Amino acid sequence: MAWYDEAVFYHIYPLGLTGAPKKNEYNVPEHRLNTLIPWIDHLKKIGITALYIGPLFESVGHGYETTDYKKLDSRLGTNEDLTDFVKKCHEAGIKVILDGVFNHTGRDFFAFKDIKEKRDASQYRDWYCNVNFYGNNEYNDGFSYDNWGGYNLLVKLNQKNPSVKDYICDVIRFWVKEFDIDGLRLDAADVLDFDFMKELRRTADAVKPDFWLMGEVIHGDYSRWANANTLHSVTNYSLHKGLYSGMNDHNFFEIAHTIRYTKGMIPAHIKLYNFVDNHDVERISTKLINRAHYTPVHIMLYTLPGIPSVYYGSEFGIEGKKERFSDDSLRPYIDIKEHSEDYEKNPCTKLIASLGKIHKKFCSDLTGEDYRELCLTNRQFAYGRGRLIIALNNDDNATEINVPAVDGEYRGLLFGDKITAVNGRLQIKIQPNSGEIFAPVDIADNNTGYISDIEEEKKKPAKETKAKAEEQSAVESGNRKLKKIQNDKTTEAKEPENIKIKEKKSTEINERKTVQIPDIPYEEMTVEQLQAVIISKMEKNGPVTDRMRKDVQENIWKNSLVNWAKSFR
What we know:
The chain is α/β, with parallel strands linked by helices. The chain has three domains: about 5-105 and about 160-365, TIM Barrel (Alpha-Beta Barrel); about 105-160, Alpha-Beta Complex (Oligo-1,6-glucosidase, domain 2); about 465-565, no CATH class. About 35% of the residues lie in helices and about 15% in strands. It has 20 helices and 21 strands. The protein has an eight-stranded parallel sheet with strand order 11-10-9-5-2-1-13-12. The chain is globular, with a radius of gyration of 24 Å.
């Protein structure tokens, strides 16, 4: 099994974590990357085995408008600093992957600057998509071009151009030779050219054994990107949304459905990159209506099929709300010295550290292909992974569930309780808004790292303020009230009536606005027409919930919608 299949990832956005200036003045390098060296010891303490860090290379602002692929951003230091940092990570047993921002460059990139200077005489005019010297833009360049996301700051590379392919593959070889990295996370992979990604895969297979390619993909059939010819894995945004939405709605059915849905997309040996927050979405502690759900959410993150990843600072339970014109609150500066006591005093940190130990000890169970649903209701959920049984409760009251199990004694790996399975059944008591991971007592380790005092955190009032409630949509609010009325009427793993009512309501809402779908290529459709196409295709595959519709309606990026529409089989 490759190293990445067994990894527990940590995600760092370095410009934010180091407190770098928002704008790069291209001055003398400031060695801020070196301030992250003490974090390596922190990663070891909480059981991290791989680091995803980026963007790192010279850019003008947030890092994704690359100026120079072969030079560490001046705000972070020098290439020597990055070489030393990766070496220290490897000495600590931590693999390192970087952000590969290959869909677009910044306007200060050498090829684009050459076009500005020489116009149609530039040898790089075909390095970018649809350069039109009869057009113009807000920078008054005297020409127009394709961009990413509607931002002319991000100039779309022509990935079909052989020279562009050769250049980017050379960049990958340079990064491996210079910094000894172990893989790449491909930014905006859902709009990358597929032949381009195949070329990247061939390069990855040649530069280093088990060199890992993981892509940022929001929607669609993940197998289009994660397969033997393109990428090893993609971001599991479906599970990310299912986890916090299912917990907020007290609806484990949504989470279980999402697991089945994503598992059905890909071959069993491919593992998706799981996360509960990252540099583009709100912190999990902000998204959760009830802060106590932090525990069951992270138990699922570490024990469901896939590769778990923790975003820097979330192991301390920090919050971060997405703002309309800024992601700064999602990417804060943190001084690791201020968290030196969190390993003993912060229940969030203690939970993550314990889950890291459990993942390491029971890696064969948690990275294998076995996944079995054992119990499923709105508020309780249990599943098996190899020899382990995971039991979860999102209710404010303690509860008991009965699940199938091999006869014998079991120990809880988080809180230490012992229970015995008799006649093929295991009676499990689960504390409010909590969960447990049970293992046969003969293989359980008494020193796994119990965190019983995390229960003290759960005694605090749920963080359900008026402001938080106002942020929920009217539809979501109505669904929660409906679910409260119907709560726990079913104890078997079957679809509850409130879900059916919700889906019927969704259809009625959608019918109020009908968008005609023209018989033209997807590339020629409007955003609204593409959204209608995707919803219609979803309806052919089964019931469409309000959450699914909202996901479609919130995606306003045409290239992403085109790829999403094409992903349906």
